[in-house]
Records
---
Amino acid sequence: GENVEQHPSTLSVQEGDSAVIKCTYSDSASNYFPWYKQELGKGPQLIIDIRSNVGEKKDQRIAVTLNKTAKHFSLHITETQPEDSAVYFCAARRLGKLVFGAGTILRVKS
Amino acid sequence: EPEVTQTPSHQVTQMGQEVILRCVPISNHLYFYWYRQILGQKVEFLVSFYNNEISEKSEIFDDQFSVERPDGSNFTLKIRSTKLEDSAMYFCATLRRLASTGELFFGEGSRLTVL
């Protein structure tokens, strides 16, 4: 089955700096890769996603890149703000089931 | 904006007791999921449900677990005899259609504490 690895487990950045979180997946048939943000006591919220026929997608300060050959995808957050502090999960999916990475705790220091 | 609603938000129970967690999916969604998150760990797939039957389940989803959609609206997860290790956040998620690229919507979760 699918296995998703996520790095780093924790990331501290200064406000205004960029943050990058990386994930790899094992199932080459996976073709949908969402990123979720989870704040304390809440459910995961989708922040951006990418399909396998696209290499890069951007939404304001957030971007995701996908390298299908290498089976890895990354989340880029530019100009980080304190409210970006949360746990971020990558995931991979083929058809129904999402498989999540272990999560990255992002702390943005002001 | 449509949302997935879960109840209760928090339940405390004694080991060995039965627990039912409830989810109201988004109205035009057809695929339903339960995920579990033990404190500080990753979100883990438990089970998927479509057309009134389980379509896939994980190793975690043993005989103590069951799901049903008894009245066409609520989607429930039952744990027959809870164990300490069942303590976790349980998330319901729903999907409109099984296209490979549809968004999975998550509820806010039900926190289960087993004493």
---
Amino acid sequence: AQSVTQPDIHITVSEGASLELRCNYSYGATPYLFWYVQSPGQGLQLLLKYFSGDTLVQGIKGFEAEFKRSQSSFNLRKPSVHWSDAAEYFCAVGTSGGSYIPTFGRGTSLIVHP
Amino acid sequence: DGGITQSPKYLFRKEGQNVTLSCEQNLNHDAMYWYRQDPGQGLRLIYYSQIVNDFQKGDIAEGYSVSREKKESFPLTVTSAQKNPTAFYLCASGRASAGLGEQYFGPGTRLTVT
């Protein structure tokens, strides 16, 4: 079975600083990888996804993520954080067979200081 | 606009009462899901349905029931048997293509039982 680890429960950055949120997955074959963002009291919104091809994926709101097979990682990055980026971020992995159900990480809460 | 709607946004009930949460989608997705979210625990899958008139238990199905009579609708009933029903409930939908795992979420319903 697949699994997802987001090692950081909370991350605090200053507005304008760069951001990297970590995500590690465990899955035997090529994974389908996702990052979602959740503002307080809201549903989740898809930021970006990786299915195949270029390992550097661009998403909405200026986010990008890089798939590194050798490290089983799919870290989310943003060069300059805005106060409105404060939210909960979830990494998820889908599989290449059978189930339509992705596995979600526990989430990383991003706090942005002015 | 296509999307997923959940109603109501906030719901209050007395202990011992059943309550039904609504979820409707017009994305023409075959698969629909219900998640429960508690602080610090990420998303936990309650039930999912991959096709009309069929659904499967997720990780925490006890005390919940669902139906899938129409492709567009997947209501969740929180029964009096659910020991700790106060939570944020998220509905999602996705394409029934094996292995994608990409999901679209509704805005959520916050249920408070006293």
